[in-house]
Amino acid sequence: MSRNLPVEIAVQDAAGTRVALEHGAARIELCQALGLGGLTPSIGLVESAVAAAAEAGASAFVHVLVRPRGGGFVYDADELDTIARDIRSAAAAGADGVVVGALTDAGRLDLDAVRRFVDAAGDADVTVHRAVDASIDPRGAVAALAGLGVRRVLTSGGAADCRGGLVALEAMAAASGPLEIMAGGGVKIDDIPALAAAGVDAVHLSARGRALRGGASGPGGGVDGFDETDAALVVAAVRAAGAAISGAGSAARA
Questions:
Q1: Which of 30, 53, 138, 173 can bridge 199 by disulfide, Cβ–Cβ 3.0-4.6 Å?
Q2: In sequence order, which ranges of 124-202 are alpha helices (DSSP H)?
Q3: Integer Cα distance of 155 and 172 in angstroms
């Protein structure tokens, strides 16, 4: 039997949200500052994405990254409080889910923090992000999420990218039970058939291009240009995911 392979696109603005909606993405991870690994977006941006998804009739579409800073995933008490507040704010603004994660000083998944995040999310879905890949035991981190109320985990299998983590991703998918395994980390269009064959539940990519509009930044404004979501890459990813699953289904029936 064939199945769907949802494609999640990391987007940083309203335009990216519309591109993902228009070209068949299953959902977005809404964030800012992807160059830092992604940070919490503004509530105004969350509200804009939620409104766009509602207008398009897309359900379970807006998933908000909640990460207060770059530089790793070990957080102090103030940062954990900020994360919990931002989770509640995102959910109150209509987000369908949040994307979170934290590690202990020892480099293990911070299960107490994850429980706190799940509580703060209420009815919103919870995805644990690639903090698991930065842990000392990625497979153990994924296994530890069982029973915590987490919907899915975004992981490269503990490798620098999904190509390097393919064997681990296959093992995670086979042992995950109800926890969804979403492959993410350096995903290229050509990787999607192998990820589908490994049995993951979804794929995640940023589909980023570079825009130079907006004028020069000038002194104090940072670099010229900014990231934008490339519609052609979104289309290609969705097509590749559909073709990979259709091909697997045909092979199974042969």
A1: 173
A2: 131-134, 138-143, 166-175, 192-197
A3: 10
Residues in CB range of 131: below 8 A, 6 or more apart: 73, 101, 102, 103, 109, 141
Q: Letter for the amino acid at 98? A: V
Residue holding tokens 């670099």?
Answer: 223
Q: What phi and psi, each to the nearest 5 degrees, are found at residue 245?
A: -70, -40
Q: What is the three-class DSSP state of 31?
A: coil
**Segments making up each domain of the chain, as ranges:** 7-213+225-253
The pLDDT score that the predictor gives to residue 1 is 32
- Report CA Rg, the chain: 18
CATH code that applies to domain 7-213+225-253? 3.20.20.380
Per-residue DSSP letter, 10? E
Task: Tell me the C-alpha distance between 183 and 160, whole Å.
Answer: 12
Q: Which residues pair with 63 in a beta bridge?
A: 29, 97
First vs last C-alpha separation in the chain:
12
- Buried/exposed code over 38-56 (b: 16+ C-beta within 10 A; e: otherwise): bbbbeeebbbbbbebbeee
Contact (CB, 8 A) for 12 and 29: no
Backbone angles phi, psi at 109, to 5 degrees: -60, 130
Query: pLDDT (tens digit, 9 = 90+) per residue, 16-62?
Result: 999 999 999 999 999 999 989 999 999 999 999 999 999 999 999 99
CA-closest candidate to residue 224, choices 235, 236, 238, 210: 210
Backbone angles phi, psi at 214, to 5 degrees: 105, -5
Beta pairing partners, 39: 32
Q: Which pTM value belongs to this model?
A: 0.92
